[in-house]
């Protein structure tokens, strides 16, 4: 009676192992395969008799052997399971992905459990691998992360120009100011706007004005370093935050930008629109109460450039200047 019961239990257990939707592999201490369930057969295309007593590493050379051996030795020594997750390693054995919903993924993402199998004499002579297909979970998480990253990027970006919006570049400026206060680092701010921009809109229309603004943004992207922050202040006004740069170097950058834009010709509906910019430069060499004071100083220098005749660069020198009006042409 007991023998029949044990035989039935073994039969049931075998049926479960073959039917469950996870991979089950049993290896001996030489990493030779002894159990290969239906899941593994269907995903690998290898029949149980083809893999029996074969080395796992010879069948799946993508497994990093030293890493896997170290992982298994820890399981055997401690007698406790170990786990791998797809975020750390996308897969243990590389299977193609056949799921219709996540079909855009080339391979199956996997989580793996490594179990010690204790023999009747309590020694651990075999280990069991349980391989889970987590492609749907991984794909959903990756898509969510990509969507969040895109939303984060959109929240920082000016829609018309693709430059940093005011909220984001002010955050960057605030960070640079805090770094300056702590480490005495340098940073400069270049502020500029398009000369007589109202005439561009009045003469050619607002779509032409938008094209001019976009052309300026493109030139800015060409001129800045990877570590700089090119942003839109609002309307036809722009800023460039230059970390680790003083006003002298910032002036050279501003002059280069001014000359580049002066030579730029924007064409809209068959008409060429020439234009120039005026620029103001300020840095953190003069004591400032907060980061906003650097904006005010660059703005004052820009106002001075306008007053001096436009299409030029002025550097804030600490001299008192009249607060500039917010509307400039």
Automatic annotation (TrEMBL):
<dbReference type="InterPro" id="IPR043128">
    <property type="entry name" value="Rev_trsase/Diguanyl_cyclase"/>
</dbReference>
<feature type="domain" description="GGDEF">
    <location>
        <begin position="185"/>
        <end position="318"/>
    </location>
</feature>
<dbReference type="GO" id="GO:0005886">
    <property type="term" value="C:plasma membrane"/>
</dbReference>
<dbReference type="Pfam" id="PF00990">
    <property type="entry name" value="GGDEF"/>
</dbReference>
<dbReference type="GO" id="GO:0052621">
    <property type="term" value="F:diguanylate cyclase activity"/>
</dbReference>
<dbReference type="InterPro" id="IPR000160">
    <property type="entry name" value="GGDEF_dom"/>
</dbReference>
<protein>
    <recommendedName>
        <fullName>diguanylate cyclase</fullName>
        <ecNumber>2.7.7.65</ecNumber>
    </recommendedName>
</protein>
<dbReference type="InterPro" id="IPR029787">
    <property type="entry name" value="Nucleotide_cyclase"/>
</dbReference>
<dbReference type="InterPro" id="IPR050469">
    <property type="entry name" value="Diguanylate_Cyclase"/>
</dbReference>
<dbReference type="InterPro" id="IPR000014">
    <property type="entry name" value="PAS"/>
</dbReference>
<dbReference type="InterPro" id="IPR035965">
    <property type="entry name" value="PAS-like_dom_sf"/>
</dbReference>
<dbReference type="GO" id="GO:1902201">
    <property type="term" value="P:negative regulation of bacterial-type flagellum-dependent cell motility"/>
</dbReference>
<dbReference type="GO" id="GO:0043709">
    <property type="term" value="P:cell adhesion involved in single-species biofilm formation"/>
</dbReference>
């Amino acid at each position: 009676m007991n023998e029949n019961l044990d035989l039935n239990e073994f039969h049931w257990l075998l049926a479960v192992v073959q039917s469950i939707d996870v991979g089950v592999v049993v290896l001996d201490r030489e990493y030779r395969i002894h159990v290969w369930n239906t899941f593994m057969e269907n995903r690998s295309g290898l029949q149980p008799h083809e893999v029996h007593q074969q080395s796992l590493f010879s069948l799946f050379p993508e497994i990093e052997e030293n890493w896997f051996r170290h992982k298994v030795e820890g399981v055997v020594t401690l007698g406790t399971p170990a786990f791998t997750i797809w975020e750390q390693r996308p897969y243990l054995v590389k299977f193609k992905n056949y799921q219709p919903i996540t079909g855009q993924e080339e391979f199956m993402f996997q989580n793996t459990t490594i179990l010690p199998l204790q023999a009747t004499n309590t020694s651990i002579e075999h280990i069991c691998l349980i391989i889970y297909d987590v492609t749907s979970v991984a794909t959903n998480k990756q898509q969510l992360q990509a969507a969040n990253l895109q939303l984060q990027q959109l929240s920082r970006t000016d829609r018309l120009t693709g430059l940093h919006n005011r909220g984001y570049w002010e955050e960057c400026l605030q960070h640079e100011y805090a770094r300056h206060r702590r480490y005495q680092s340098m940073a400069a701010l270049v502020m500029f706007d398009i000369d007589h921009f109202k005439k561009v809109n009045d003469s050619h229309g607002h779509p032409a004005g938008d094209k001019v603004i976009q052309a300026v943004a493109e030139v800015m992207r060409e001129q800045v370093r990877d570590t700089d922050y090119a942003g839109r202040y609002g309307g036809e006004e722009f800023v460039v935050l230059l970390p680790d740069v003083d006003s002298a170097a910032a002036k050279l950058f501003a002059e280069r930008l001014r000359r580049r834009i002066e030579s730029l010709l924007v064409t809209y509906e068959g008409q060429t629109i020439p234009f120039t910019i005026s620029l103001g430069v300020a840095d953190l060499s003069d004591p400032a109460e907060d980061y906003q004071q650097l904006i005010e100083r660059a703005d004052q220098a820009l106002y001075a450039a306008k007053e001096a005749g436009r299409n030029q660069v002025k550097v804030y020198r600490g001299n008192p200047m009249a607060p500039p009006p917010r509307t400039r042409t």
